[in-house]
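Before anything else, study the sequence and fold tokens given here and see whether the fold suits the sequence. Record follows:
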Amino acid sequence: MVISKHGIVLGATVVALSTVAVTGTGFHLSQSQAFFQESPKELVDEVWQIINYQYVDTSFNNLDWQQVRQEYLGKSYTGKDDAYEAIREMLEKLEDPYTRFMDPGEFKDMQIDTSGELTGVGIQIAKDEETDRLIVISPIEDTPAFSAGILAKDIITKIDGVDTKGMDTKDAVKLIRGKPGTRVTLTIDREGRNRDYEIVRARIKIHPVKASIKDTSIGDVGYIRLTQFSAQASKEMRDAIKDLEGQNVEGYVLDLRSNPGGLLYASIDIARMWLKEGAIVSTVDRGGERERKFANNNSLTDKPLVVLVDGGSASASEILSGALQDNDRATLVGTQTFGKGLVQSVRSLGDGSGLAVTIAKYLTPSGRDINKEGIPPDIVIELSDEQRKVLQGDRTLIGTPDDPQFIKAVEILSGEVRASRDSSAHLMNK
């Protein structure tokens, strides 16, 4: 998930099973509140109008969108629940699981700020179109779901015994969300095998950046693990790089594994810390390219960099890793990223409900559309189920000699550092 300062969401609308942290600025207040109190039909039309003027697909999934308006405005609505049902039915015609309506309660949950404090089990989900099931985009590190062993790409087949076949993400949230200290059981299908995970809900405060120095054969290496692109991420990343530069590290390993995304501006800010020049990301809407972001010659280091990614690296993680890869700034190691590259605008409606509408997609600097495809690493290193279980069972092993992907990253970094040293020595001897 990626969210901008202006209410723009890049990537799939995924639901943190707790709440989705979004910025409050940029939510456009509707003018229909007074009308809605008199006629729920006004809310239906407001949603139709937003889709009509903003939706990325001008064919509206090959629908006669004007005819859809006539159909739904021709109906009678006895109250807001009727209107909500009609809106959801209308949006389903687009066959876009990420364009969705949220009732006031759901929207309020989504509007919590990105302070990095979450309440729930700590996973992000989306609808798997092929199976009609709920798929885990990523467990958030240091949360109950992560500790329980939930993995990216897991399929949630049951929630407290309730079958999830055909279940909307909003309904899943209602079942999974609850007070801290209470329990919820998720039945997970992982590669054809089903298992129950009993998870205790909690309130979690997350510091997204964890940095340390690793002693390697080439000397000290800076290891930075970024778990979420929250509001604190840019500052914490800047502080970490400056501190490690002050300790004269030889190079860096940036770990984006299982990072589900977050704030768009955080991903751009962090990309600029590593890139001196070049494009970072562009967005394309129904009218063509809308905006492109560039580095601004304010990078903090030019030392060799290796980035770790996996199937849980989504959206903002893909913006950052794609920018670094396309600009030849870093070598990517691990496995294919998740592949979420849609752009959404989140709007407040007249009665306190909300609408997320897909308005664009994002492209990497080279023009790659990674939605549903993901970003392939330069060096593929798969982890076995046993290796994943070991690392999730003891998080202190991540970024250590017991972490095969980290070891490969250090190996590649060592080669780049030695090559840089040899080049410098050759120039000095001329």
